[in-house]
Amino acid sequence: MTLTYTLLDVRRMVRNPGILIFAVAMPAAFYAMFGALQSYSDIAVFHGNVSAMIMTSIAAYGGVIAASSLGADAALEQDRGWGRQLAITPMTPARYLLTKVVAIQLVALMPVAAVFALAAILGARIDGIGWLWAFLLCWLCCVPFTIFGLGMAQLIRTETAGAITSFCVIGFAFLGNMLVPLSGTMLKLSRYTPLFGINQLARYPVMGNWEVTGGEPVQFNIWIAVVNLGAWTALFALGALLASRRGQER
Fold first, then answer.
1. Where are the alpha helices (DSSP H) in the chain?
2. 1: which DSSP letter?
3. pLDDT of 134 over the 90 cut
4. What is the rounded distance in angstroms from the CA atom of residue 27 to the CA atom of residue 226?
5. For residue 93, what pLDDT is reported?
6. What is the model's pTM?
7. CA distance 178 to 195
8. Which of 62, 128, 170, 175 has the fewest beta carbons under 10 Å from its own?
């Protein structure tokens, strides 16, 4: 049942025209405007160029916002009483959460792949096998926000869940040193935000142990990003599971 439900969910998602525009076209356009077409895009950095560094951040951002929005779309299922229907089947809250995460992760490949393909055409450079590592990190690091979006849907259970989730992700991106380089106190605070770890790990194949700031790059312990990612993933998963159980008990 789990595999069948996952495949049906993937097919339903990719048939939505909004996915092609919002999840694929917009991140690719952002990369072209703010990365590839800028005069500084070809400047060399530690293991590639600036264009590649921007590529990883935009690809990760695109994957995250697509994954979280798709998770929040599950609110429509809850409005139709789908949670109560699942409660009388072998589909437990944990299995429901797993199938949703897998399906959304598969669809979240689309924006990551689109940005990487465009970047390869427009001159992004990463040393050696860094292309593969960067791609995998940008994609796999979407998992916490797949769970975040799903948890928001279970918690809010109205059509506003998608808008609220997207607003949160955009805020996290700015506060996490993802879209705008930060410095000083804001940079220090960014290390406690949900997108900080994802952004640093996505950039790691290009930047190594260096962090982009509002001034010069500074050395950085990558394990801080790993701990950040793990902590927020655990927190989001716990919240989503508790919200799912509450929805089925109603």
1. 2-14, 17-18, 26-31, 50-72, 74-79, 82-87, 93-122, 130-140, 143-156, 160-175, 184-190, 196-207, 222-249
2. -
3. yes
4. 25
5. 67
6. 0.90
7. 7
8. 128
